[in-house]
Description:
CATH architecture of the largest domain: Alpha-Beta Barrel
EC number: 2.6.1.42
InterPro entries: Aminotrans_IV, Aminotrans_IV_CS, Aminotransferase-like, B_amino_transII, BCAT-like_C, BCAT-like_N
Family: Belongs to the class-IV pyridoxal-phosphate-dependent aminotransferase family.
Radius of gyration: 22 Å
Number of domains: 2
GO cellular component, one term: mitochondrion
Largest sheet: 10 strands, mixed
Number of helices: 10
Cofactor: pyridoxal 5'-phosphate
Strand content: 15-25%
Helix content: 10-25%
Structural class: alpha+beta
Distance between the termini: 29 Å
Oligomer: single chain
CATH class of the largest domain: Alpha Beta
Amino acid sequence: MPPIAFTPHEEQDNASDLTAQGIEHALQKTAPSQLKSASLSDSITQLPSTNPKHDVPTPLAELDASLLQTTYTTSPRPVPAIGSPEMTSQRVCSDHMIQAKWNSTTGWAAPTLQPYGPLSLMPTASCLHYATECFEGMKLYRGYDGKLRLFRPALNCARMLVSTSRIALPGFPPAELLKLIVKLCATDGAKWLPKDRPGSFLYIRPSMIATDPALGVQRPTEALLFVMLTCFPPMDGQPGGAKLLASKDDMVRAWPGGFGYAKVGANYGPSLVAHGEAHALGYHQILWLFGEECYVTEAGASNFFVVWRTREGRVQLVTACLTERIVLDGVTRRSVLELARERLVEGYDGLEGVEVVERKFTMAEVAEAADEGRLIEGFAAGTAWFVAPVGHIHFRGKDFKVPMGEDGQSGRYTATVKEWLRGIMWGTNGQEGHEWGYVVDEI
């Protein structure tokens, strides 16, 4: 992920961008090492220096993985059987977790690797009242070559800094977070992803919450970073493809100037009512639209792609752009686009070459392509859903099918990109040494 430079502007109204000003000020204090070399997500664009008229605060202690203190469990937990209710419950975590505490007086304390267990919070903790919490979603894969891998983990760690900065939580060097994640994966990976279960994975959930026990709408003065590994079922194999219900006028997931680009809890809680109603009607996810024009944004918590043929005859792979910061800069999204530009532009294995397009597009355009026989396929992409073919969309009282290919399970473009990603994640198809696969050395 390209670094972001904080470019100074000599003359600027300090009140013109309070969010950018606040983020820069917080980083000056909590993670000054990131101001000139921050690997922040492209979705935050170039935050300008606001040239505040206050003194630069004294930097606090930064997050430092080399200070990790380790306490191993004396009560190891059993690993659930594949396909068991425990494995699919999304409630079973591995033996250990990472924790690191922060406060506004001293900064980051030494992180710990410790037995997995409950957290202790006061009822007045900021995260319970003001949505001062964010998280990431990653996976640890057991490859068919026997190795443990992460997939482009530096991107997730950089994006988490974007999220913490957006909701007034402390900054940190993403590289230090990555070291802590790798340590946890190396500690629990061998037991919880044994070598006789190739093709399996654990879900990684790095989170940060504000823990200061004082009510009041203000910047948090205490925070807790924690990382856990959770058993998680595959979610990409819906028979006949995923069924999506396009959102209605009374539903808005994110908006310009908001925080749709950050992975914060406030993006998800308000969507659960609509999501539950969609499930009750037989749909798998909401296809989130925005504005009177019904611009397509995301499918549930995943990025959404269509492959269609233009009226001029060109095949395009299209997904929503990031310019308005409504859509999450998904790691899977980014990877799909990069692979498509590298391998699909000229065609592949009999597939016609595609033009890769990131732009605003409307649900009306998708419906017209379907009505005119130009819609080729569609899919959702994200860490949890991986690459999930879409087979059906309901929009404004009308149902239409999304082509699924000859096998009725996936279009060929979807299947091709998915196979490339699978090869990198699980070390197959000649992708064992791909730079996106981060090999974890087991303890």
